[in-house]
Recover the amino acids of this structure.
Protein backbone atom coordinates (compact mmCIF):
# COMPACT_ATOMS: atom_id res chain seq x y z
CA UNK A 1 0.00 0.00 0.00
CA UNK A 2 2.88 2.31 0.84
CA UNK A 3 4.39 1.42 -2.53
CA UNK A 4 1.20 2.39 -4.35
CA UNK A 5 1.13 5.82 -2.75
CA UNK A 6 4.85 6.37 -3.43
CA UNK A 7 4.24 5.49 -7.05
CA UNK A 8 1.10 7.64 -7.35
CA UNK A 9 2.51 10.69 -5.57
CA UNK A 10 6.14 10.74 -6.69
CA UNK A 11 6.57 8.88 -9.94
CA UNK A 12 3.22 9.03 -11.72
CA UNK A 13 3.12 12.89 -11.75
CA UNK A 14 6.42 12.85 -13.67
CA UNK A 15 5.09 10.38 -16.22
CA UNK A 16 1.89 12.40 -16.58
CA UNK A 17 3.83 15.57 -17.43
CA UNK A 18 6.02 13.60 -19.86
CA UNK A 19 2.75 12.21 -21.26
CA UNK A 20 1.61 15.77 -21.95
CA UNK A 21 4.87 16.29 -23.88
CA UNK A 22 4.22 13.09 -25.80
CA UNK A 23 0.69 14.22 -26.73
CA UNK A 24 1.89 17.73 -27.67
CA UNK A 25 4.53 16.26 -29.98
CA UNK A 26 2.04 13.92 -31.59
CA UNK A 27 -1.08 16.09 -31.88
CA UNK A 28 0.29 19.61 -32.24
CA UNK A 29 3.49 18.58 -34.03
CA UNK A 30 5.39 20.54 -31.41
CA UNK A 31 9.07 20.48 -32.28
CA UNK A 32 11.30 18.92 -29.60
CA UNK A 33 14.35 20.73 -31.01
CA UNK A 34 13.12 24.22 -30.07
CA UNK A 35 12.14 23.17 -26.59
CA UNK A 36 15.36 21.29 -25.92
CA UNK A 37 17.42 24.26 -27.14
CA UNK A 38 15.48 26.64 -24.90
CA UNK A 39 16.16 24.23 -22.05
CA UNK A 40 19.83 23.73 -22.82
CA UNK A 41 20.69 27.40 -23.33
CA UNK A 42 18.33 29.25 -20.99
CA UNK A 43 16.45 27.17 -18.44
CA UNK A 44 19.01 24.58 -17.37
CA UNK A 45 21.85 27.06 -16.66
CA UNK A 46 19.47 29.16 -14.56
CA UNK A 47 18.37 26.07 -12.61
CA UNK A 48 21.96 25.03 -11.95
CA UNK A 49 22.95 28.55 -10.84
CA UNK A 50 19.87 29.03 -8.66
CA UNK A 51 20.20 25.67 -6.89
CA UNK A 52 23.94 25.88 -6.34
CA UNK A 53 23.88 29.48 -5.06
CA UNK A 54 21.16 28.61 -2.56
CA UNK A 55 22.72 25.29 -1.60
CA UNK A 56 23.78 24.98 2.01
CA UNK A 57 26.44 22.33 1.46
CA UNK A 58 29.79 22.17 3.24
CA UNK A 59 33.01 21.75 1.27
CA UNK A 60 33.53 18.29 2.73
CA UNK A 61 30.03 17.13 1.76
CA UNK A 62 30.55 18.59 -1.72
CA UNK A 63 33.80 16.66 -2.02
CA UNK A 64 32.18 13.41 -0.99
CA UNK A 65 29.32 13.96 -3.46
CA UNK A 66 31.89 14.60 -6.19
CA UNK A 67 33.63 11.31 -5.37
CA UNK A 68 30.27 9.54 -5.19
CA UNK A 69 29.25 10.80 -8.64
CA UNK A 70 32.58 9.92 -10.26
CA UNK A 71 32.61 6.58 -8.45
CA UNK A 72 29.13 5.49 -9.55
CA UNK A 73 29.57 6.57 -13.17
CA UNK A 74 33.10 5.20 -13.64
CA UNK A 75 32.30 2.13 -11.53
CA UNK A 76 29.28 1.10 -13.59
CA UNK A 77 31.39 1.86 -16.68
CA UNK A 78 34.09 -0.57 -15.52
CA UNK A 79 31.52 -3.28 -14.75
CA UNK A 80 29.89 -2.77 -18.14
CA UNK A 81 33.25 -2.96 -19.89
CA UNK A 82 33.98 -6.30 -18.24
CA UNK A 83 30.57 -7.59 -19.29
CA UNK A 84 31.10 -6.51 -22.91
CA UNK A 85 34.52 -8.18 -22.91
CA UNK A 86 32.94 -11.42 -21.74
CA UNK A 87 30.36 -11.16 -24.54
CA UNK A 88 33.07 -10.33 -27.10
CA UNK A 89 31.11 -7.46 -28.62
CA UNK A 90 32.62 -5.41 -31.44
CA UNK A 91 34.18 -2.01 -30.86
CA UNK A 92 31.21 0.14 -31.91
CA UNK A 93 28.78 -1.94 -29.88
CA UNK A 94 31.04 -1.64 -26.80
CA UNK A 95 30.93 2.16 -27.18
CA UNK A 96 27.17 2.14 -27.54
CA UNK A 97 26.84 -0.11 -24.49
CA UNK A 98 29.05 2.09 -22.33
CA UNK A 99 27.26 5.27 -23.40
CA UNK A 100 23.85 3.76 -22.71
CA UNK A 101 24.73 2.37 -19.28
CA UNK A 102 26.95 5.08 -17.82
CA UNK A 103 24.91 8.22 -18.34
CA UNK A 104 21.72 8.44 -16.32
CA UNK A 105 18.82 10.81 -16.65
CA UNK A 106 19.75 13.04 -13.73
CA UNK A 107 18.09 16.16 -15.14
CA UNK A 108 14.51 15.92 -16.28
CA UNK A 109 13.71 12.77 -14.29
CA UNK A 110 16.12 12.66 -11.34
CA UNK A 111 15.60 16.24 -10.18
CA UNK A 112 11.77 16.35 -10.00
CA UNK A 113 11.66 12.84 -8.50
CA UNK A 114 14.10 13.79 -5.74
CA UNK A 115 12.16 16.96 -5.08
CA UNK A 116 8.81 15.12 -4.83
CA UNK A 117 10.11 12.23 -2.76
CA UNK A 118 12.58 13.95 -0.40
CA UNK A 119 12.22 17.73 -0.71
CA UNK A 120 14.55 20.69 -1.15
CA UNK A 121 17.63 19.52 0.79
CA UNK A 122 17.90 16.29 -1.21
CA UNK A 123 17.21 18.25 -4.42
CA UNK A 124 20.30 20.38 -3.79
CA UNK A 125 22.47 17.26 -3.45
CA UNK A 126 20.90 15.69 -6.51
CA UNK A 127 21.74 18.89 -8.43
CA UNK A 128 25.41 18.57 -7.55
CA UNK A 129 25.34 15.01 -8.87
CA UNK A 130 23.52 16.23 -11.99
CA UNK A 131 26.02 19.00 -12.80
CA UNK A 132 29.03 16.70 -12.38
CA UNK A 133 27.42 13.99 -14.49
CA UNK A 134 26.60 16.53 -17.22
CA UNK A 135 30.26 17.49 -17.38
CA UNK A 136 31.20 13.78 -17.66
CA UNK A 137 28.55 13.18 -20.34
CA UNK A 138 29.93 15.93 -22.51
CA UNK A 139 33.57 14.83 -22.12
CA UNK A 140 33.78 11.11 -21.55
CA UNK A 141 30.38 10.53 -23.21
CA UNK A 142 31.38 12.28 -26.42
CA UNK A 143 34.77 10.56 -26.34
CA UNK A 144 33.12 7.12 -25.98
CA UNK A 145 30.37 7.80 -28.48
CA UNK A 146 32.97 8.69 -31.08
CA UNK A 147 34.60 5.29 -30.24
CA UNK A 148 37.93 6.88 -29.51
CA UNK A 149 37.95 8.74 -32.82
CA UNK A 150 38.18 12.04 -30.99
CA UNK A 151 41.23 13.27 -29.17
CA UNK A 152 41.03 13.97 -25.47
CA UNK A 153 41.57 17.64 -26.24
CA UNK A 154 38.58 17.82 -28.58
CA UNK A 155 36.45 16.03 -26.02
CA UNK A 156 37.51 18.50 -23.35
CA UNK A 157 36.72 21.51 -25.51
CA UNK A 158 33.18 20.14 -25.83
CA UNK A 159 32.62 20.86 -22.13
CA UNK A 160 32.98 24.57 -22.67
CA UNK A 161 30.08 24.52 -25.11
CA UNK A 162 27.65 23.60 -22.31
CA UNK A 163 25.99 26.71 -20.86
CA UNK A 164 25.28 24.89 -17.56
CA UNK A 165 29.00 24.51 -16.98
CA UNK A 166 29.38 28.31 -17.05
CA UNK A 167 26.43 28.64 -14.70
CA UNK A 168 28.11 26.23 -12.29
CA UNK A 169 31.37 28.20 -12.47
CA UNK A 170 29.48 31.47 -11.86
CA UNK A 171 27.71 29.90 -8.87
CA UNK A 172 30.99 28.69 -7.38
CA UNK A 173 32.44 32.23 -7.73
CA UNK A 174 29.35 33.76 -6.07
CA UNK A 175 29.51 31.27 -3.19
CA UNK A 176 33.28 31.62 -2.77
CA UNK A 177 33.28 35.45 -2.77
CA UNK A 178 30.03 35.64 -0.76
CA UNK A 179 28.59 38.26 -3.10
CA UNK A 180 24.86 38.92 -2.71
CA UNK A 181 23.23 38.65 -6.12
CA UNK A 182 20.81 41.61 -6.51
CA UNK A 183 17.10 40.83 -7.14
CA UNK A 184 17.30 42.35 -10.63
CA UNK A 185 19.56 39.43 -11.60
CA UNK A 186 18.22 36.79 -9.22
CA UNK A 187 14.56 37.26 -10.16
CA UNK A 188 14.92 36.54 -13.89
CA UNK A 189 17.20 33.61 -13.03
CA UNK A 190 14.65 32.20 -10.56
CA UNK A 191 11.85 32.73 -13.05
CA UNK A 192 13.64 30.79 -15.77
CA UNK A 193 14.80 28.19 -13.28
CA UNK A 194 11.17 27.52 -12.29
CA UNK A 195 10.42 26.52 -15.85
CA UNK A 196 13.40 24.16 -16.16
CA UNK A 197 12.07 20.95 -14.62
CA UNK A 198 8.57 20.99 -16.15
CA UNK A 199 9.94 21.88 -19.58
CA UNK A 200 12.63 19.17 -19.30
CA UNK A 201 9.87 16.66 -18.59
CA UNK A 202 7.89 17.80 -21.62
CA UNK A 203 11.05 17.34 -23.70
CA UNK A 204 11.47 13.83 -22.27
CA UNK A 205 7.94 12.94 -23.38
CA UNK A 206 8.48 14.49 -26.80
CA UNK A 207 11.71 12.56 -27.26
CA UNK A 208 10.13 9.27 -26.22
CA UNK A 209 7.46 9.90 -28.86
CA UNK A 210 10.17 9.39 -31.44
CA UNK A 211 11.56 6.19 -29.91
CA UNK A 212 12.05 3.45 -32.47
CA UNK A 213 11.16 -0.25 -32.41
CA UNK A 214 13.33 -2.36 -30.11
CA UNK A 215 16.35 -4.12 -31.60
CA UNK A 216 18.67 -6.76 -30.10
CA UNK A 217 16.28 -7.42 -27.23
CA UNK A 218 18.68 -9.48 -25.10
CA UNK A 219 21.43 -6.87 -25.16
CA UNK A 220 18.86 -4.15 -24.44
CA UNK A 221 17.65 -6.17 -21.46
CA UNK A 222 21.20 -6.58 -20.19
CA UNK A 223 21.91 -2.84 -20.47
CA UNK A 224 18.64 -2.00 -18.70
CA UNK A 225 19.50 -4.43 -15.88
CA UNK A 226 22.97 -2.92 -15.45
CA UNK A 227 21.53 0.62 -15.42
CA UNK A 228 18.54 0.13 -13.14
CA UNK A 229 19.75 -2.60 -10.76
CA UNK A 230 23.56 -2.85 -10.71
CA UNK A 231 24.08 0.93 -10.70
CA UNK A 232 21.60 1.32 -7.83
CA UNK A 233 23.44 -1.31 -5.77
CA UNK A 234 26.74 0.39 -6.55
CA UNK A 235 25.18 3.63 -5.26
CA UNK A 236 24.30 1.98 -1.93
CA UNK A 237 27.83 0.59 -1.54
CA UNK A 238 29.56 3.88 -2.39
CA UNK A 239 27.24 5.90 -0.13
CA UNK A 240 28.26 3.55 2.70
CA UNK A 241 31.97 3.78 1.88
CA UNK A 242 31.93 7.59 1.59
CA UNK A 243 29.75 8.02 4.66
CA UNK A 244 26.94 9.88 2.89
CA UNK A 245 23.83 10.15 5.03
CA UNK A 246 20.49 11.97 5.19
CA UNK A 247 19.65 14.17 2.21
CA UNK A 248 22.99 13.52 0.51
CA UNK A 249 22.42 9.75 0.62
CA UNK A 250 18.85 10.10 -0.69
CA UNK A 251 19.73 12.54 -3.48
CA UNK A 252 22.88 10.64 -4.47
CA UNK A 253 21.40 7.13 -4.61
CA UNK A 254 18.26 8.29 -6.46
CA UNK A 255 20.48 9.85 -9.12
CA UNK A 256 22.59 6.70 -9.42
CA UNK A 257 19.38 4.68 -9.94
CA UNK A 258 17.93 6.74 -12.81
CA UNK A 259 17.27 5.25 -16.26
CA UNK A 260 19.43 6.15 -19.25
CA UNK A 261 19.72 9.82 -20.23
CA UNK A 262 17.80 10.88 -23.32
CA UNK A 263 20.82 12.86 -24.48
CA UNK A 264 22.64 9.58 -25.21
CA UNK A 265 20.33 9.05 -28.19
CA UNK A 266 21.51 12.39 -29.56
CA UNK A 267 25.16 11.45 -29.03
CA UNK A 268 24.80 8.01 -30.59
CA UNK A 269 22.87 9.41 -33.55
CA UNK A 270 25.51 12.06 -34.11
CA UNK A 271 28.40 9.59 -34.07
CA UNK A 272 26.53 6.61 -35.56
CA UNK A 273 27.20 4.29 -32.64
CA UNK A 274 24.19 1.96 -32.80
CA UNK A 275 21.52 4.67 -32.36
CA UNK A 276 18.62 2.18 -32.59
CA UNK A 277 20.09 0.12 -29.75
CA UNK A 278 20.72 3.17 -27.55
CA UNK A 279 17.22 4.55 -28.17
CA UNK A 280 15.72 1.19 -27.20
CA UNK A 281 17.71 1.14 -23.96
CA UNK A 282 16.53 4.68 -23.17
CA UNK A 283 12.93 3.74 -23.84
CA UNK A 284 12.86 0.47 -21.89
CA UNK A 285 14.89 1.69 -18.93
CA UNK A 286 12.57 4.72 -18.61
CA UNK A 287 9.37 2.72 -18.91
CA UNK A 288 10.55 0.02 -16.48
CA UNK A 289 12.10 2.47 -13.99
CA UNK A 290 8.97 2.82 -11.77
CA UNK A 291 9.40 -0.86 -10.84
CA UNK A 292 12.86 -0.26 -9.34
CA UNK A 293 12.44 3.34 -8.19
CA UNK A 294 9.26 2.80 -6.16
CA UNK A 295 10.80 0.25 -3.74
CA UNK A 296 14.02 2.31 -3.71
CA UNK A 297 12.18 5.43 -2.52
CA UNK A 298 10.42 3.36 0.16
CA UNK A 299 13.80 2.07 1.37
CA UNK A 300 15.47 5.50 1.38
CA UNK A 301 12.47 7.16 3.04
CA UNK A 302 12.73 4.70 5.92
CA UNK A 303 16.40 5.63 6.30
CA UNK A 304 17.70 2.16 5.48
CA UNK B 1 12.84 58.53 -7.15
CA UNK B 2 14.66 55.66 -5.46
CA UNK B 3 11.26 54.04 -4.88
CA UNK B 4 10.45 54.25 -8.58
CA UNK B 5 13.87 52.88 -9.46
CA UNK B 6 13.52 49.94 -7.12
CA UNK B 7 10.01 49.16 -8.43
CA UNK B 8 11.34 49.29 -11.96
CA UNK B 9 14.39 47.15 -11.14
CA UNK B 10 12.53 44.55 -9.08
CA UNK B 11 9.12 44.24 -10.72
CA UNK B 12 9.41 45.35 -14.34
CA UNK B 13 13.04 44.88 -15.44
CA UNK B 14 13.19 41.12 -14.63
CA UNK B 15 10.36 40.60 -17.12
CA UNK B 16 12.21 42.51 -19.82
CA UNK B 17 15.40 40.57 -19.06
CA UNK B 18 13.62 37.23 -19.46
CA UNK B 19 11.93 38.53 -22.61
CA UNK B 20 15.34 39.48 -24.01
CA UNK B 21 16.51 35.93 -23.38
CA UNK B 22 13.55 34.87 -25.54
CA UNK B 23 14.56 37.46 -28.13
CA UNK B 24 18.13 36.12 -28.21
CA UNK B 25 16.96 32.50 -28.40
CA UNK B 26 14.79 33.36 -31.39
CA UNK B 27 17.46 35.50 -33.02
CA UNK B 28 20.59 33.36 -32.61
CA UNK B 29 19.38 29.81 -32.06
CA UNK B 30 16.41 30.00 -34.43
CA UNK B 31 14.14 28.78 -31.64
CA UNK B 32 10.67 28.51 -33.11
CA UNK B 33 8.18 30.79 -31.39
CA UNK B 34 5.21 28.79 -32.67
CA UNK B 35 6.29 25.64 -30.82
CA UNK B 36 6.86 27.42 -27.54
CA UNK B 37 3.67 29.45 -27.74
CA UNK B 38 1.59 26.39 -28.60
CA UNK B 39 2.97 24.50 -25.63
CA UNK B 40 2.54 27.51 -23.38
CA UNK B 41 -1.03 28.33 -24.29
CA UNK B 42 -2.30 24.77 -24.74
CA UNK B 43 -0.65 23.04 -21.79
CA UNK B 44 0.94 25.43 -19.33
CA UNK B 45 -1.57 28.27 -19.06
CA UNK B 46 -4.65 26.05 -18.48
CA UNK B 47 -2.72 24.39 -15.63
CA UNK B 48 -1.76 27.79 -14.19
CA UNK B 49 -5.37 29.01 -14.31
CA UNK B 50 -6.65 25.81 -12.72
CA UNK B 51 -4.16 25.71 -9.87
CA UNK B 52 -4.54 29.45 -9.12
CA UNK B 53 -8.33 29.35 -9.04
CA UNK B 54 -8.47 26.14 -6.99
CA UNK B 55 -5.97 27.29 -4.36
CA UNK B 56 -6.98 30.96 -4.03
CA UNK B 57 -10.11 31.77 -2.11
CA UNK B 58 -12.01 34.01 -4.52
CA UNK B 59 -15.74 34.41 -3.87
CA UNK B 60 -18.23 34.09 -6.72
CA UNK B 61 -19.15 37.73 -6.11
CA UNK B 62 -15.56 38.92 -6.49
CA UNK B 63 -15.12 36.76 -9.56
CA UNK B 64 -18.22 38.34 -11.11
CA UNK B 65 -17.13 41.90 -10.36
CA UNK B 66 -13.67 41.23 -11.80
CA UNK B 67 -15.20 39.83 -15.01
CA UNK B 68 -17.60 42.79 -15.24
CA UNK B 69 -14.73 45.20 -14.72
CA UNK B 70 -12.87 43.62 -17.64
CA UNK B 71 -15.86 43.73 -19.97
CA UNK B 72 -16.76 47.36 -19.11
CA UNK B 73 -13.15 48.48 -19.40
CA UNK B 74 -12.63 46.93 -22.84
CA UNK B 75 -15.94 48.21 -24.22
CA UNK B 76 -15.41 51.62 -22.56
CA UNK B 77 -11.96 52.23 -24.00
CA UNK B 78 -13.27 50.98 -27.35
CA UNK B 79 -15.99 53.63 -27.26
CA UNK B 80 -13.44 56.32 -26.33
CA UNK B 81 -11.20 55.11 -29.15
CA UNK B 82 -14.09 55.45 -31.58
CA UNK B 83 -14.91 59.00 -30.41
CA UNK B 84 -11.28 60.14 -30.55
CA UNK B 85 -10.87 58.91 -34.11
CA UNK B 86 -14.11 60.53 -35.38
CA UNK B 87 -12.33 63.68 -36.65
CA UNK B 88 -9.63 61.58 -38.35
CA UNK B 89 -12.06 59.93 -40.80
CA UNK B 90 -10.21 56.60 -40.85
CA UNK B 91 -11.24 54.00 -43.40
CA UNK B 92 -12.97 50.87 -42.25
CA UNK B 93 -9.91 48.57 -41.98
CA UNK B 94 -7.84 51.22 -40.22
CA UNK B 95 -10.64 51.94 -37.76
CA UNK B 96 -10.98 48.23 -36.93
CA UNK B 97 -7.24 47.96 -36.40
CA UNK B 98 -7.21 51.05 -34.18
CA UNK B 99 -10.01 49.76 -31.98
CA UNK B 100 -8.41 46.33 -31.67
CA UNK B 101 -5.03 47.63 -30.49
CA UNK B 102 -6.64 50.00 -28.01
CA UNK B 103 -9.07 47.45 -26.57
CA UNK B 104 -6.96 44.32 -26.20
CA UNK B 105 -3.99 44.57 -23.89
CA UNK B 106 -1.31 42.09 -22.94
CA UNK B 107 -3.04 40.63 -19.90
CA UNK B 108 -1.36 37.24 -20.36
CA UNK B 109 2.41 36.98 -20.54
CA UNK B 110 3.09 40.52 -19.32
CA UNK B 111 0.18 41.40 -17.03
CA UNK B 112 0.18 38.14 -15.10
CA UNK B 113 3.93 38.37 -14.46
CA UNK B 114 3.82 41.98 -13.25
CA UNK B 115 0.87 41.19 -10.97
CA UNK B 116 2.84 38.32 -9.46
CA UNK B 117 6.06 40.29 -9.00
CA UNK B 118 4.53 43.47 -7.66
CA UNK B 119 1.65 42.12 -5.55
CA UNK B 120 2.09 38.35 -5.18
CA UNK B 121 0.07 35.19 -5.61
CA UNK B 122 -3.33 36.55 -4.52
CA UNK B 123 -3.15 39.37 -7.07
CA UNK B 124 -2.02 36.89 -9.71
CA UNK B 125 -5.15 34.78 -9.12
CA UNK B 126 -7.38 37.87 -9.65
CA UNK B 127 -5.40 38.87 -12.72
CA UNK B 128 -6.15 35.49 -14.32
CA UNK B 129 -9.87 36.35 -14.23
CA UNK B 130 -9.11 39.51 -16.20
CA UNK B 131 -6.96 37.50 -18.56
CA UNK B 132 -9.65 34.88 -19.21
CA UNK B 133 -12.41 37.45 -19.71
CA UNK B 134 -10.35 39.60 -22.05
CA UNK B 135 -9.26 36.56 -24.06
CA UNK B 136 -12.89 35.49 -24.47
CA UNK B 137 -13.76 39.03 -25.65
CA UNK B 138 -10.82 39.00 -28.02
CA UNK B 139 -12.20 35.93 -29.77
CA UNK B 140 -15.71 37.38 -29.99
CA UNK B 141 -15.68 41.19 -30.13
CA UNK B 142 -12.11 41.29 -31.47
CA UNK B 143 -12.81 38.91 -34.35
CA UNK B 144 -16.11 40.73 -35.02
CA UNK B 145 -14.20 44.01 -35.42
CA UNK B 146 -11.37 42.50 -37.47
CA UNK B 147 -13.80 40.76 -39.76
CA UNK B 148 -15.47 44.15 -40.48
CA UNK B 149 -18.65 43.35 -38.66
CA UNK B 150 -19.10 39.85 -39.99
CA UNK B 151 -19.28 37.14 -37.38
CA UNK B 152 -22.04 34.67 -36.80
CA UNK B 153 -23.05 33.57 -33.31
CA UNK B 154 -21.82 30.09 -34.12
CA UNK B 155 -18.35 31.31 -35.09
CA UNK B 156 -18.19 33.36 -31.91
CA UNK B 157 -19.05 30.34 -29.75
CA UNK B 158 -16.57 28.11 -31.57
CA UNK B 159 -13.88 30.78 -31.11
CA UNK B 160 -14.46 30.97 -27.37
CA UNK B 161 -14.56 27.18 -27.02
CA UNK B 162 -11.12 27.01 -28.66
CA UNK B 163 -9.47 28.92 -25.80
CA UNK B 164 -7.56 26.24 -23.86
CA UNK B 165 -7.48 28.30 -20.64
CA UNK B 166 -11.28 28.20 -20.58
CA UNK B 167 -11.11 24.50 -19.74
CA UNK B 168 -8.83 25.26 -16.81
CA UNK B 169 -11.50 27.65 -15.52
CA UNK B 170 -14.32 25.14 -16.01
CA UNK B 171 -12.37 22.37 -14.28
CA UNK B 172 -11.61 24.71 -11.38
CA UNK B 173 -15.31 25.64 -11.10
CA UNK B 174 -16.18 21.95 -11.01
CA UNK B 175 -13.74 21.34 -8.18
CA UNK B 176 -14.84 24.41 -6.20
CA UNK B 177 -18.58 23.70 -6.59
CA UNK B 178 -18.38 20.03 -5.64
CA UNK B 179 -15.81 20.58 -2.89
CA UNK B 180 -13.65 17.70 -4.16
CA UNK B 181 -10.09 17.55 -2.84
CA UNK B 182 -7.81 17.10 -5.85
CA UNK B 183 -5.39 14.19 -5.13
CA UNK B 184 -1.61 14.82 -5.39
CA UNK B 185 -1.37 12.55 -8.42
CA UNK B 186 -3.38 15.16 -10.37
CA UNK B 187 -2.37 18.31 -8.50
CA UNK B 188 1.39 17.69 -8.68
CA UNK B 189 1.65 17.45 -12.49
CA UNK B 190 -0.70 20.43 -12.82
CA UNK B 191 1.40 22.50 -10.42
CA UNK B 192 4.61 21.41 -12.10
CA UNK B 193 3.33 22.57 -15.47
CA UNK B 194 1.86 25.76 -14.01
CA UNK B 195 5.29 26.74 -12.65
CA UNK B 196 6.58 26.88 -16.21
CA UNK B 197 3.71 29.06 -17.46
CA UNK B 198 4.91 32.56 -16.54
CA UNK B 199 8.55 32.14 -17.61
CA UNK B 200 7.55 30.52 -20.90
CA UNK B 201 4.97 33.23 -21.60
CA UNK B 202 7.63 35.92 -21.14
CA UNK B 203 10.07 34.02 -23.36
CA UNK B 204 7.33 33.88 -26.00
CA UNK B 205 6.79 37.64 -25.65
CA UNK B 206 10.48 38.26 -26.36
CA UNK B 207 10.48 35.85 -29.29
CA UNK B 208 7.42 37.57 -30.74
CA UNK B 209 8.96 41.03 -30.40
CA UNK B 210 12.00 39.75 -32.29
CA UNK B 211 9.82 39.62 -35.38
CA UNK B 212 8.46 43.15 -35.21
CA UNK B 213 9.90 45.80 -37.47
CA UNK B 214 10.16 49.54 -37.53
CA UNK B 215 7.36 51.87 -36.51
CA UNK B 216 5.04 53.01 -39.31
CA UNK B 217 2.41 55.78 -39.23
CA UNK B 218 3.95 57.32 -36.09
CA UNK B 219 1.09 59.73 -35.30
CA UNK B 220 -1.67 57.11 -35.23
CA UNK B 221 0.62 54.65 -33.48
CA UNK B 222 1.42 57.30 -30.87
CA UNK B 223 -2.27 58.06 -30.33
CA UNK B 224 -3.13 54.37 -29.90
CA UNK B 225 -0.18 53.88 -27.53
CA UNK B 226 -1.34 56.85 -25.44
CA UNK B 227 -4.87 55.50 -25.16
CA UNK B 228 -3.57 52.06 -24.29
CA UNK B 229 -1.01 53.11 -21.67
CA UNK B 230 -2.63 56.23 -20.18
CA UNK B 231 -6.31 56.31 -21.18
CA UNK B 232 -7.13 52.76 -20.10
CA UNK B 233 -5.68 53.01 -16.56
CA UNK B 234 -7.57 56.29 -16.01
CA UNK B 235 -10.85 54.71 -17.08
CA UNK B 236 -9.98 51.64 -14.97
CA UNK B 237 -9.50 53.79 -11.86
CA UNK B 238 -13.05 55.07 -12.24
CA UNK B 239 -14.38 51.55 -12.82
CA UNK B 240 -12.72 49.97 -9.76
CA UNK B 241 -14.39 52.69 -7.64
CA UNK B 242 -17.82 52.11 -9.23
CA UNK B 243 -17.57 48.31 -8.93
CA UNK B 244 -16.09 48.47 -5.43
CA UNK B 245 -12.96 46.45 -6.20
CA UNK B 246 -10.43 46.83 -3.38
CA UNK B 247 -7.22 45.28 -2.05
CA UNK B 248 -5.53 42.70 -4.25
CA UNK B 249 -8.47 42.72 -6.70
CA UNK B 250 -7.98 46.45 -7.24
CA UNK B 251 -4.22 46.00 -7.67
CA UNK B 252 -4.67 43.20 -10.19
CA UNK B 253 -7.34 45.14 -12.11
CA UNK B 254 -5.19 48.25 -12.35
CA UNK B 255 -2.06 46.35 -13.41
CA UNK B 256 -3.94 44.48 -16.11
CA UNK B 257 -5.50 47.69 -17.41
CA UNK B 258 -2.10 49.39 -17.64
CA UNK B 259 -0.69 46.79 -20.02
CA UNK B 260 0.44 47.60 -23.58
CA UNK B 261 -1.29 46.20 -26.66
CA UNK B 262 -1.55 42.40 -26.78
CA UNK B 263 0.84 40.60 -29.12
CA UNK B 264 -2.04 38.38 -30.32
CA UNK B 265 -3.62 41.39 -32.04
CA UNK B 266 -0.87 41.15 -34.69
CA UNK B 267 -2.04 37.63 -35.53
CA UNK B 268 -5.63 38.82 -35.76
CA UNK B 269 -4.61 41.76 -37.97
CA UNK B 270 -2.61 39.53 -40.29
CA UNK B 271 -5.36 36.96 -40.57
CA UNK B 272 -8.06 39.49 -41.50
CA UNK B 273 -5.71 41.97 -43.26
CA UNK B 274 -6.64 44.99 -41.14
CA UNK B 275 -3.55 47.23 -41.24
CA UNK B 276 -1.10 44.62 -39.91
CA UNK B 277 1.96 46.91 -40.00
CA UNK B 278 0.12 49.56 -37.96
CA UNK B 279 -0.88 46.93 -35.39
CA UNK B 280 2.64 45.49 -35.14
CA UNK B 281 4.09 48.99 -34.70
CA UNK B 282 1.68 49.76 -31.89
CA UNK B 283 2.47 46.51 -30.09
CA UNK B 284 6.17 47.32 -30.36
CA UNK B 285 6.00 50.96 -29.26
CA UNK B 286 3.50 50.46 -26.45
CA UNK B 287 5.49 47.52 -25.04
CA UNK B 288 8.72 49.51 -25.21
CA UNK B 289 7.20 52.54 -23.44
CA UNK B 290 5.19 50.56 -20.91
CA UNK B 291 7.91 50.35 -18.20
CA UNK B 292 7.47 54.09 -17.56
CA UNK B 293 3.72 54.01 -17.02
CA UNK B 294 3.63 50.59 -15.35
CA UNK B 295 6.29 51.62 -12.80
CA UNK B 296 4.30 54.74 -11.93
CA UNK B 297 1.08 52.78 -11.54
CA UNK B 298 2.71 50.19 -9.26
CA UNK B 299 4.11 53.02 -7.10
CA UNK B 300 0.64 54.63 -6.98
CA UNK B 301 -0.97 51.33 -5.92
CA UNK B 302 1.70 50.59 -3.30
CA UNK B 303 1.48 54.01 -1.68
Amino acid sequence: MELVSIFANNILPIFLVAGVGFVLARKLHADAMTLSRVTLYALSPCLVFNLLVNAQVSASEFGRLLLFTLGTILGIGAITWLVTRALQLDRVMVSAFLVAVMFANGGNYGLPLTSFAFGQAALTRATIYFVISVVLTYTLGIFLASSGRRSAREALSGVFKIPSVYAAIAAVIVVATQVTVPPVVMRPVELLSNAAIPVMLLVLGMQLERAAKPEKLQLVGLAVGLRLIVSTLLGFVLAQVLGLDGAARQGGIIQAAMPVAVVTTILSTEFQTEPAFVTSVVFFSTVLSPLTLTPLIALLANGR
Amino acid sequence: MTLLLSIFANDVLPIFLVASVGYLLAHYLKADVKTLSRITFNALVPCLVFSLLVTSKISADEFGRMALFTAFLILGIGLIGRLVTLPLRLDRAMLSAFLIVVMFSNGGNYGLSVSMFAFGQAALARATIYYITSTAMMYTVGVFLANSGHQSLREAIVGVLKIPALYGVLAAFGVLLTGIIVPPVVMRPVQLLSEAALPCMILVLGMQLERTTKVEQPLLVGLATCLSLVGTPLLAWGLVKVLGLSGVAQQAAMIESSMPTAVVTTILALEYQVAPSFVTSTVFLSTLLSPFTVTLIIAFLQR
